[in-house]
Write a structure and sequence with these properties.
With 205 residues, the chain is α+β, with helices and mostly antiparallel strands. It folds into two domains: 3-72, Elongation Factor Tu (Ef-tu), domain 3, CATH 2.40.30; 77-204, Threonyl-tRNA Synthetase, Chain A, domain 2 (2-Layer Sandwich), CATH 3.30.980.10. It is built from two helices and 13 strands. The chain has a six-stranded antiparallel beta barrel with strand order 1-2-5-4-3-6. A four-stranded antiparallel β-sheet has the order 7-8-13-12, with helices on one face. It has a three-stranded antiparallel β-sheet with strand order 9-10-11, with no helix packed on it. Helix 1 (74-98) crosses helix 2. The structure holds zinc ion. Zinc ion is lined by residues 84, 88, 161, 171, 173, 175.
Length: 205
């Protein structure tokens, strides 16, 4: 899983672009893939407009037209998929538990270990209620709910992510197919990112 055979379309100092790839670029709250392409270590994947740039550890030893074989570090990617999928559940349950006093501000994954989301809060974060969010998210995960994708009506490329009973959410990231794949998660309050804001850190247990 997560392997590719492709041709090089562009190679620069420290990155290579292919005519097709399964490497997911950093963005939408998800970390970029790592892995290897024809013996060269890929340390990150970034998108630049239409192009997906595979960042090499040293100079990129590729030539345009060269055929290459590559593979994602699948274990890492799978942890990212679990973490990213869990972050959607946390988003919904935060609204359920804290209501209108809490509004999402930004979210993003640092790596395959931790996801952090910032929320605007009208009142100090109640740790007891955060523990409730963690319990509820773990309950949803344990229920083994199917995760589905569909195209947004009227769009040819915008993807919607959905896990019942929650409304669909636009997301082009990578997700597991069932919440049970996520396994238990932990939530903790991170260092305060600013006045009126709280940071919630999510890790796989
Ligand atoms: Zn997503």
């Amino acid at each position: 899983m997560g392997e590719l055979d492709a041709a090089v379309t562009r190679a620069e100092d420290n990155f290579v672009v292919l005519d097709g790839t399964c490497f997911f670029p950093q963005g939408g709250g998800q970390a970029g893939d790592t892995g290897e392409i024809s013996g060269s270590k890929i340390v990150d994947t970034l998108s630049d407009g239409e192009e997906i740039c595979h960042i090499t550890e040293g100079a990129a030893p590729f030539k345009p037209g060269q055929l290459v074989h590559g593979a994602i570090d699948w274990q890492r990617r799978y942890r990212i998929m679990r973490l990213h999928s869990a972050s959607h559940l946390v988003y919904y349950v935060m609204q359920e538990v804290f209501g209108d006093s809490c509004r999402p501000a930004s979210s993003g994954m640092l790596d395959d270990v931790k996801d952090r989301s910032d929320y605007l809060f009208d009142e100090p974060l109640d740790r007891g209620r955060l523990a409730l969010v963690e319990d509820r998210v773990n309950h949803l995960i344990a229920n083994g709910l199917p995760i589905t994708h569909s195209l947004e009506p009227g769009s040819k490329e915008r993807l919607l992510w959905r896990v019942a009973p929650f409304p669909a959410m636009a997301c082009g990231g990578t997700h597991v197919r069932n919440t049970a794949e996520i396994g238990r998660v932990s939530l903790r309050r991170g260092s305060k990112p600013g006045r009126g804001r709280e940071r919630i850190e999510l890790t796989l247990a």
